[in-house]
Amino acid sequence: MHRYTETTRRYALHARLLWRAAPGHSVLNLFLVLASAGTVTFGIVATGHLVGALPAAVRAGAGSPAAGRVWWWLAAAAAAYALAPLINAGQNVVAQVVSARYLRLVFGMVADVGTAPYGIGHLEDPELAGRLDAVKRAMRDWTFVSGVEWTWGLLATRVTGLGSLILVATWNWWAALLAAGSYVLLAKVFVAWIGTIFDDLLEVTGNQRRQASYVRDLMTGAPAAKELRLFGMADWLVHRYTTAWRDAMTVVWRNRYHNLRPILGACAVMLVVNAGVFALLARDASAGTVSLASLVTLVQALLALEAFGPLGDGQSALARNTSATTMLVGLRTRLGLPDVPPHSPGAPGGNEPEPLQSTRSAAAAIDLREVTFHYPTRDEPTVERLSLHVPAGQSVAIVGINGAGKSTLIKLLCGLYPPDAGTIRIDDGDPSADEATRNRVAVIFQDFVRYHLPLRDNVGFGAHTRHDDEAVLARALEDAGGTSLLDRVEHGWDTVLSAEYAEGTDLSGGQWQRVALARALAAVAGGAGVLVLDEPTAALDVRAEAALFDRFLEVTRGMTTLLVSHRLSSVRHADRIVVIGPTDDPTRTGTGIVEDGSHEELMAAGGAYARMFSLQAARFAAAGADETAGADETAGPDETAVERR
Ligand SMILES: Nc1ncnc2c1ncn2[C@@H]1O[C@H](COP(=O)(O)OP(=O)(O)OP(=O)(O)O)[C@@H](O)[C@H]1O
């Protein structure tokens, strides 16, 4: 029963989406649907009258009033049958407009799920990510848009069926209701069955199918092509793909056959009822209570009641579409977004991008108090009761072993995750709750994005409102040590940084890092008061990284800066070095602050930092390099990083 009310709920949602996407065109199409249905029903009636008038016309001969009636009905039927395709054509044109706007609306709704919540925790929730991926895949399938276009055809068919129902009811109302009801029953059972299949495809198998697709993409894409050949992985991947796909589809196949019984039952009911109704009509016709004209009309009308039944591909496409939109709306409500956006796309107040506000660019203070955080997929906290105050204008290096939580700390600082306990403040603002505060922090992460967009955007994205100010961008690129890059790319700021585009170009790892650094520096002009580099310099050699960090500290003097690196020599010139990791406190499992001070202070203290710094310097010296560089880029990060005190 729930399944049948669910179908009604889905159609109601579909109607709301159409209305929100294109209200005017939807009304126009509804009008055309009614006109089309009226024309077809009139065609049936006119044909019936035409056949009914023929015997009298034959008897009375040409030129008689009876023959005149035949001509009249012939003209009426012809007009109806000629008009119907014209109306349908018009309706198809309008349907295209509605579909285009509908797609725009729904794609916007999907984008909201990804971007509207500022934090990124929801995108890392495997269950939610699996569903979102399933919705995106469903929307890319051609049936999604054809489901929208079919809406009007299906509606027209149903309304035409209504006309036929009225015609049959003029002969025998209960027979009409019985016949139509048997088709309705079949349609309901069919839609529920097909809806379950599509839900299974989306929900039950979302993650498994995602895995199968991932393996398929590995086999066919460029990124894994080298390893795939070198390690001879092809056969293994084919096997993995087929088993993952089969496992994913088993649920669907099982449900498909198990749920067939109600459909067979509904088919049997429909056949028996229709046989009975036709028998009744035959009895009335032979008894003379139904004229020849009425018989012709009623037979056509009874056959046309099929319009209330399952409507093939169109109905399947619509079921698939509504299954995906229902899941999408479920995701939106789960994230606290309105189920359907309050405005049509492009309408005033609709989802036009809001201009980002330029804010102060003075250095900001950072204050973390007793911050505890654990990832939803983990039981233990990653950061526990960590307190850190960074006064405005100070440069701080955050160092620690692999997995100590350095990046997590930075993500908390940007508000990408809200802490479980404690407070994080940038000046007085909470970055997880306040957009203006978030705009005060500019970060370049280890895995920064290489945008396949012009150089201008790659740098300018950091600068918010000053995105198009070439002087700002040029200054940022210069400060990042990337001025020569501008001379090397053929179309200057407009060069697309991807070889996949005509006249575009790719960059080396080091060049990309300078572009990313320039993006962070451009953010100062856009209002950032805290600059963070979370190891975006891994592709640079040790000297280049040290030089770049020194330069960064120089050009950002007076700004609040945080530097994260494994190479202790690279960050030695920061005002202050904070070592994070597991603490000696047995009541804590998460990361806390282990050491805190300037390079000189920590070296003098002779703790973990001093030991690891000396070790790195010694290794580097042993490798024959300049000792003053003081770090070993050849050692693994675990070896070179700061150990627990
Ligand atoms: N999205 C996530 N979901 C679950 N656990 C995570 C997630 N991101 C990081 N972790 C875990 O949290 C811990 C801290 O990770 P984090 O990336 O902050 O460390 P890090 O100090 O920056 O490491 P590295 O020096 O290797 O970059 C690690 O144990 C890591 O496996």
UniProtKB/TrEMBL annotation:
Membrane-related topology note: Multi-pass membrane protein
Q: Which UniProt keywords apply?
A: ATP-binding, Membrane, Nucleotide-binding, Transmembrane, Transmembrane helix
Q: Which CDD domains does this UniProt record tie to the protein?
A: ABCC_MRP_Like
> Which residue spans traverse the membrane?
27-50, 70-90, 150-169, 176-198, 263-282
Annotated GO CC locations: plasma membrane
* Membrane listed as a keyword: yes
Localized where?
Cell membrane
The record's region (Disordered) falls at 339-358, 626-645
The protein in question is named ATP-binding cassette subfamily B protein
Organism equals Actinopolymorpha cephalotaxi
